[in-house]
Amino acid sequence: MTPTAFHLVTIPILSDLEVREVPGTRLAEKSRNFSLLARKSSPNAFASTYEAESKRSIEQTYERLTNSKAVQYVALKFDVETTEQEVSIVGVDELDRNEWEGFIALLGPQEGSDGRVSASVNPFHLMTRTSSGEHEKRKPGFSCQVDAGLYFHLNGFFVRLAARGHGLGRTQVEAAIAQTLSNS
After folding, report:
1. Helix or strand or coil: residue 41?
2. Whole-angstrom Cα distance, residue 124 to residue 159?
3. Which pTM was predicted?
4. What is the SS3 assignment for 16?
5. Cα–Cα distance between 131 and 117 in angstroms, integer?
6. Which of 55, 92, 112, 163 has its CA 20 to 30 A from that of 29?
């Protein structure tokens, strides 16, 4: 029997046009469904409830997938001969085909945050606005210089019960921390 390995992959930032195509729509639906599963499986782990999230439109999921100030990682399960965990980028089709075992969402950087972000005021919107108040639009791969006064926010973090105990949560948090450090 081959061991199970979890690979942490970055959900690609989609353009507004790509999101309306079939792969983008499937990715948005899978992302929304996994978020709802997380809230149903671990209701005490989130500030937002399953009921509140289920009322959000698919448009809000599209917005999250097109926002360049949100880095979202998904843990995919693969049966392989090695248990090495690494962060990689895969295509939308591969994200759709494989089972999601966990996710973590990092928002920012945001200038001038006082660090008091709350789900009651939608941290996604708060942490992904530019200083002018508009959402920043940029192409994937753009790097920005981060000053000491910039803040990041972990907006979501979940590991399926069956995948717990393998260090997957730690790997997700370490990837998010590495992302913040790469911006400094």
Report:
1. helix
2. 20
3. 0.74
4. helix
5. 16
6. 163
Task: Return d(Cα 155, Cα 127) in angstroms, integer.
Answer: 9
- Summarize pLDDT for 6-41 with one digit per residue, the tens: 888 888 888 766 667 788 888 999 999 999 999 999
Q: How far apart are CA 30 and CA 101, in angstroms?
A: 12
Which strand (E) or helix (H) includes residue 39?
Answer: helix 22-41
CATH number at residue 76: 3.40.630
For the chain, how many structural domains are there in total?
1
Q: What burial class does residue 146 get, using C-beta atoms within 10 Å of its C-beta: 0-12 exposed, 13-18 middle, 19+ buried?
A: middle
> What range does the domain containing 145 cover?
4-182
Over residues 83-127, the pLDDT tens digits come to 444 556 677 888 888 899 999 998 888 776 555 555 555 555 555
pLDDT per residue as tens digits for the range 110-169 = 776 555 555 555 555 555 555 444 444 433 333 344 455 678 888 889 999 999 998 999
